[in-house]
Specification:
This protein is an alpha+beta fold and about 350 residues long. Helices cover about 45% and strands about 25% of the residues. The protein contains 9 helices and 13 strands. The termini are far apart.
Length: about 350
């Protein structure tokens, strides 16, 4: 009886740790680092459906033969539970070695001998599967199955909650159509980049981008195709930038690119590269191929020294409208003079 109460207390502590974890990796860590306190296991494994991430928590005494057996069996069990065939090469394996508490006093040949695998299900949807793995036979009894069922139920519920919170965070910073940063998040990022550039006297450039003749596209092809044009441009923008550059949807058919530590001449080169990529990459509309063009306005510190991020944006916007006035499908850049507005033009 004393052992049963001890196991119940351990079970309760594991469930509490899982329930208190907010992030997905924390939920998995809460389980992976504690399950050996309740079960006589050599490994805990979990394969998630969303990104096909396979987490394996192994005792540090585990050999390669055992670990490979756990990986193969977890994938096989996942396919059986979900009815999906998956390519093992598409699975991301994450191995963590731990020192597990062992109750088994016999000898072992280091092979996978026993396992319990259960689906992670929440609201009728399979999120993945989790397994307890042992290197000896008959390692698990009916009580182990009951306890592990409670744990996987709590893991699935916590994972679903984590996904909801993550989705809400994404909605707060991403544009739902283009999956770029939205205007609200842009304001926060640009404020920080502008402050850093000002304090550290580092260069910073921004590029305002606008689709030429976007209204006729909407009127002629319909708003659905207009949305596809925005997605098309967003994809080109992301593919044309460095990994530390930032691109966002500014509003309507306008986008804004932040180029940290970038001088004016380099920003203009990047802007021109984007322009050429857009005009040469067709958008398929039914059987028709449509070629979009864009106009771009560039502003950069220290070529100008604006007092605020709003003034910085206004300079790029002014250069953009100069590009529109000059005939569209071109890059213009803002340069300071004695006059409040002065532009440089990069002709094609």
């Amino acid at each position: 009886m004393r052992i049963i109460f001890k196991n119940l207390r351990t079970l309760w502590s594991i469930i509490n740790a899982i329930n208190a974890s907010g992030e997905l990796t924390d939920i998995i860590e809460a389980a992976g680092s504690r399950l050996s306190n309740l079960f006589d296991i050599l490994a805990f494994s979990i394969l998630l459906k969303k990104d096909l991430d396979l987490y394996v928590y192994c005792d540090e005494s585990s050999n390669r033969l055992f670990v490979d057996g756990v990986v193969q069996n977890t994938i096989k069990t996942y396919s059986f539970i979900t009815g999906e065939r998956i390519n093992p090469e598409k699975i991301t394996k994450r191995l963590a070695m731990r020192r597990f508490e062992s109750r088994w006093k016999g000898t072992s040949d280091g092979r996978l001998k026993s396992y319990i695998s259960l689906p992670l299900i929440n609201e009728g949807k399979v999120l993945g599967c989790a397994s307890l793995n042992s290197d000896h036979t008959n390692a698990f009894d009916a009580q182990a199955l009951q306890f592990f069922s409670l744990i996987t139920y709590q893991m699935a519920a916590s994972m679903k909650h984590s996904q909801v919170i993550s989705s809400m965070k994404d909605m707060a910073i991403y544009d739902s159509l283009t999956n770029l940063y939205n205007r609200r998040h842009l304001d926060q990022v640009l404020e920080e980049e502008f402050r850093n550039a000002t304090l550290s006297k580092q260069p910073l450039a921004i590029v305002m981008v606008d689709i030429d003749h976007f209204k006729p596209i909407n009127d002629h092809y319909g708003h659905d195709e207009g949305d596809r044009a925005l997605i098309h441009l967003a994809s080109i923008l992301k593919g044309s930038l460095r990994n530390y550059d930032i691109v966002s949807r500014f509003g309507g058919e306008e986008f804004l690119v932040i180029l940290p530590k970038t001088m004016m001449k380099d920003a203009v080169v990047i802007a021109e590269r984007i322009r050429r990529s857009v005009e040469t990459t067709p958008l398929s509309v039914g059987d028709e191929k449509v070629y979009l063009t864009i106009s771009l306005g560039v502003a950069a510190i220290p070529a100008i020294l604006p007092d605020s991020k709003e003034e910085f944006i206004k300079c790029a916007d002014t250069a953009l409208y100069e590009a529109k006035d000059k005939g569209r499908n071109r890059v213009c850049f803002y340069v300071p003079t004695q006059h409040p507005i002065a532009k440089g033009v990069l002709s094609r």
